[in-house]
Amino acid sequence: MAKIEGICREVLDNAQWVAIATTGVDGVHLVGTWGAYIKTMGIIDDQIILVPAGGYHETEGNLAKNSRIELLAGTRKVKGLNGPGKGCLIRGTGQVQTSGELAEAAKKKFVWARGVLVIKAEEVLEQL
To answer: Quick one: which of 9, 10, 63, 71 has the most CB atoms within 10 Å?
Structure first.
């Protein structure tokens, strides 16, 4: 697994929103989440991102067949190469958990959550 640290950790900590991509029978499927949701749930050991899952039914189905997942986050609060704005691409594997300790933590923090999307980072790349 890769570590989410340095600039990419700063980007995630300041991102307003995060795009999440999985692949299914119809091709790429995109969903999003608020950066504040990730900050609230936390990142375990600088490697595992937790996202509260309300819907994410298609995402869950895609991950059951192909666990590959990508996240793209960006913020203008972190200095980029050519001025304000930096991004981060995270590639790894994911799973939606609707029971267990992590799912219960998500449900406690977000009354609308049915579980948690658990993402294990395998590659972390700076963008912009």
So the answer is: 71
